[in-house]
Structures are given as structure tokens and as C-alpha cells.
């Protein structure tokens, strides 16, 4: 689920920047005008007093990287998450075992009429310290022009920064002796960065499922404000499957079982070329449209309402700036920007994340590899499902004579959709309006998160994203999260914490 590009423009920023889709009519007002009536004045005072503790909490969390792909610090990460939850006021906190890495569950029950779910992840992506200008586990504060003083570290914005800020809001509400307006259910996993292969086991555990089904909705904290302070309210997201296709002489029965000298190519088959041939059957010749048999059978086209949201948003987006940040000169088929945005939301994809075979170091090495691997991600749209897509991919490979090509699925989940008239979405929009933040309705996230675990049976509740603040570089070197904003339109950590508090009170009050 990685996205790398220039200028720190990462996968999640692509999602945000290309899909601020919809019409947010409210005027942008400076963040110092955040609401101060009711309990908010005391909560703000407590958040400001607790700021240094909040910053240190994030720094210490960054120092413990839990990386599911490397099986690194996973028990420690779950235990640390559990302690953070307890410290923020959650009770009945438990570490939840799965067939993979553990999750964490906890609740805050204040006897409120309404209950809100919160989704956390404690895992982060891999990193190479040599690629960073600031050590990835030290949480140093660095000035980011146009935004302000920011903490640099792996997981800073994806997702520890926004999550730590939500916890800061809970600390501030308690320190202010204000009554929490809603009950809260926390569900956390440690495998999001490998496609959440066991998250459903957590969410459908009987006691957790019972708690989730009481929720008016669930959200993942977000820090997606752009330089103008804009945010998106997402009505859904694409599903994803992460997998490897492997061609080998051993499984094929042709070619070498291990690497041999390349001079033998004249009489020995190549597993690497076999993998290339298999990959070529998955898409049209330009590589842009899936060609897997039956792939589009259950694809639901965007509605006219969804397309209208995209067209309206395109009027407010800077195409030239986006192309520059992405390092591209053309959209697929040289489509006009508006049509490219519609295609982004509407089309399922087959993408090659990486190709590995033989020697890839400096210079040449004359070998014929005995094994070749392609790492793929498949993005799914409603009404596709992960199970259907996996079955069709396997059937396609077999039909085209590639039954020996192994298909190793590491994770994934279905697409997700949430009704824009749900209480969760209405509360998000109302909160942003109260905060003076322009919010655009996003028809569908081009990226993915395991929200379908919540929107589909047996949980069946609305799911979305919420939050102000800013971060950048998710999955990339020098990932950062804004602490002290110098941009009056963008929230620093205190304002972002107040934003979460406002959301809780708005959800409690909205009809």
C-alpha cells in the first residue's frame, strides 16, 4: 500500500490531494477562532497545559517501532498501546490474540446515550535510516516551511501522531473535569501495514462485536489538512489485496531450481521471463486496465451524484501543482483533469509494487535466476469483494497456462461505503463547520483502510476519517507530524486535540 513520489507526496497525500471531492461552502476562518464556549475553554486550557506531555508521549511512542512485515516489536507494541489506552482512561483494556499479531481493545463507558468507535493501528512501515535526514526513531522537532515545527519519525503521521492527539484530547477533557459526552470503544490492530489479514478476528470477537454494534459509527484519526487548511469527508474507500506472484523453476518443472550461469539461457527456460509473460496477461497492453476475466462483472459505476461531487472539487484543485508534486506530465490517456479524477475514484486497478529476480546490486552478474517475484496490489471498488477478486485472479492464471505461478496473498479487505446522511458523516461536517474548516465531501478514497470490517455485516456501522492538523511523508523518509503551526489555517497539536473534543461533543448533540 505504499506510494512514493517527489516532494514527500506520499500515498495518503495522493488520496487527500486528488480527492478533496465535493462542495464545502463554508468560508475558511483562522483556527484561533475555534469554539471556546461551554466546556471548551477549560478543555483548551488543559490541552495547552498538557502539551509537553502530549509531545513527549508521541516521541516515546515513535521510539518503539512495531513493524508487522518484519515481525519486529509486535508484542511490545501491543503492550505499549494497551498502556496508552489505560493512561487515557480506557477500562477493560485487553490485548486480543489473533492468528497473526495481537490487537488491543478497551472502552470508556460514562453512561452516555451515544457511543463512538475509534480505530487505531500500532504498526508502522519499514524504514532505512540511511534515507532519512533526521533519525527515524528520535522524534526530533524540525521546521517545515509553510507549516511549522514538526516531529520527524517513522509513524509520526501514519498513524501515531493523529492517534496520540486523540488521546491528548481525552487527557484534556479529564484534566478539565469535563464530562465526556459519549462512550468510546477503542479497537486497535497491529497489521494494517500488511493488509489487516487478521483484523476481522478482532472485530468479531463476541465482546468486541457487541461493543461495536452499539456505536453510532467509528472513525480513524486523520491529519490531512492541506496548506489552505482544507479537509475531506470520505464516503468510502477502495478495497485492496496485497499479494505476491512467484514463478520458479522448481514449481514450473522447467528452468533451473536455483540460479545458473546466464550463458545457459540458449538451452534453459527462464522463470523470470515466465513471470513477465504471466503479468502481461493481467492488464491491457498499456498496463492501465485490468484484463482478468470477469474483473468488471460486479463493478458498480459511480453515481451521477458522486460524479458531480468530483466535478465540483476539480474546480478548486490545482492540477499543475499536483502534476509537479507527483513528477508526472500526463494523466492516463491524456484525460482532462476532471475525467482523470473520476477515473481515479471509479476504476479498480492492478498495480506492480515491485519486481525481484536474480541479482540487483551494482554492475552486472551473469546469472539466469531460478525464481522471480512480483509484488502486486489490487484496488477494488464497490461491489467487488476480496474473495471474488482472489478467485478470479487464480482462475485467470490457470486458464492462461500459468497454474505453476504461485499466488501468495498477504492481506486485504473489501471496499467500504458510508451514507452521507449517517449521523457520523453529519457530525463530521458539522464539526468542521464549527471549527471554521472547509470540508469537501469525498465520493471515494482512492486508497484503502480496513473500514469494510465495520461497514459490512456483522458489525454494520458507518465508518470514516476525521481530524484536523497536518502530517506528511507516510511510508517515506522524513515522515513528520505538525506540532506548532505557523500557518493560521492549519492546526498544530493543541488545536487538533480540541478538534477531536469538538467532534465528540457535536456527535453527542446532533440529531
In short:
By secondary structure, the chain is an alpha+beta fold. It is built from 16 helices and 20 strands.
Describe the 3D structure.
This protein has 511 residues and is of the alpha+beta class. It is built from 16 helices and 20 strands. Strands 1-2-6-3-7-18 form a 6-stranded mixed sheet, with helices on both faces. Strands 4-5-20-19 form a 4-stranded antiparallel sheet. Strand 1 (91-96) and strand 2 (103-108) form a beta hairpin. The longest helix is centred in the first third of the chain and has 20 residues, at 156-175. The radius of gyration is 23 Å and the shape is globular. The model is unreliable at 1-36 (pLDDT under 50).
Amino acid at each position: 500500500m505504499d506510494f512514493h513520489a517527489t516532494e514527500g507526496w506520499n500515498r495518503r497525500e495522493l488520496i487527500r490531494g486528488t480527492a478533496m471531492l465535493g462542495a464545502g461552502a463554508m468560508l475558511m476562518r483562522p483556527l484561533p477562532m475555534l469554539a471556546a464556549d461551554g466546556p471548551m475553554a477549560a478543555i483548551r486550557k488543559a490541552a495547552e497545559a498538557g502539551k509537553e506531555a502530549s509531545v513527549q508521549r508521541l516521541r516515546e511512542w515513535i521510539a518503539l517501532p512495531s513493524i508487522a512485515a518484519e515481525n519486529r516489536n509486535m508484542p511490545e507494541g501491543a503492550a505499549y498501546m494497551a498502556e496508552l489506552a489505560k493512561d487515557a482512561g480506557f477500562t477493560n483494556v485487553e490485548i486480543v490474540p489473533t492468528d497473526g499479531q495481537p490487537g488491543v481493545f478497551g472502552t470508556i463507558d460514562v453512561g452516555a446515550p451515544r457511543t463512538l468507535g475509534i480505530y487505531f493501528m500500532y504498526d508502522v512501515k519499514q524504514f532505512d535510516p540511511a534515507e532519512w535526514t533526521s533519525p527515524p526513531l528520535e522524534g526530533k522537532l524540525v521546521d517545515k516551511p509553510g507549516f511549522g515545527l514538526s516531529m520527524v519519525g517513522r509513524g509520526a503521521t501514519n498513524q501515531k501522531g493523529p492517534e496520540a492527539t486523540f488521546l491528548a484530547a481525552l487527557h484534556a477533557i479529564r484534566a478539565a473535569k469535563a464530562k465526556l459526552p459519549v462512550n468510546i470503544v477503542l479497537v486497535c490492530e497491529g497489521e494494517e501495514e500488511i493488509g489487516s489479514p487478521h483484523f476481522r478476528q478482532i472485530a468479531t470477537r463476541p465482546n468486541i462485536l457487541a461493543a461495536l454494534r452499539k456505536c453510532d459509527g467509528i472513525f480513524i484519526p486523520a491529519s490531512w489538512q492541506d496548506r489552505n487548511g482544507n479537509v475531506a469527508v470520505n464516503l468510502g474507500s477502495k478495497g485492496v489485496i496485497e499479494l505476491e506472484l512467484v514463478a520458479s523453476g522448481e514449481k514450473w518443472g522447467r528452468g533451473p531450481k536455483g540460479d545458473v550461469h546466464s550463458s545457459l539461457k540458449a538451452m534453459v527456460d527462464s522463470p523470470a521471463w515466465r513471470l513477465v509473460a504471466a503479468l502481461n496477461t493481467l492488464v491491457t497492453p498499456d498496463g492501465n486496465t485490468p484484463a482478468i476475466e470477469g474483473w468488471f462483472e460486479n463493478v458498480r459505476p459511480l453515481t451521477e451524484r458522486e460524479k458531480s461531487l468530483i466535478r465540483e472539487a476539480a474546480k478548486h484543485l490545482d492540477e499543475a501543482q499536483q502534476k509537479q508534486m507527483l513528477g508526472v506530465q500526463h494523466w492516463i490517456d491524456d484525460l482532462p483533469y476532471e475525467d482523470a479524477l473520476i477515473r481515479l475514484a471509479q476504476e479498480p486497478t492492478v498495480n506492480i509494487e515491485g519486481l525481484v529476480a536474480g541479482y540487483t546490486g551494482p554492475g552486472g552478474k551473469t546469472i539466469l535466476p531460478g525464481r522471480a517475484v512480483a509484488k502486486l496490489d489490487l484496488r477494488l471498488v464497490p461491489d467487488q469483494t476480496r474473495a471474488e477478486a482472489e478467485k478470479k485472479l487464480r482462475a485467470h492464471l490457470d486458464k492462461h497456462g500459468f497454474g505453476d505461478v504461485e499466488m501468495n496473498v498477504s492481506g486485504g479487505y473489501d471496499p467500504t461505503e458510508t451514507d452521507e446522511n449517517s449521523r457520523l458523516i453529519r457530525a463530521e461536517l458539522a464539526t468542521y463547520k464549527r471549527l471554521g474548516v472547509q470540508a469537501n465531501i469525498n465520493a471515494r478514497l482512492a486508497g484503502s483502510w480496513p473500514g469494510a470490517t465495520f461497514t459490512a455485516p456483522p458489525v454494520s456501522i458507518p465508518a470514516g476519517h476525521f481530524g484536523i492538523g497536518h502530517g506528511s511523508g507516510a511510508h517515506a523518509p522524513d515522515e513528520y507530524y505538525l506540532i506548532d503551526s505557523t500557518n493560521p489555517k492549519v492546526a498544530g497539536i493543541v488545536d487538533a486535540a480540541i478538534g477531536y473534543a469538538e467532534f465528540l461533543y457535536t456527535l453527542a448533540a446532533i440529531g
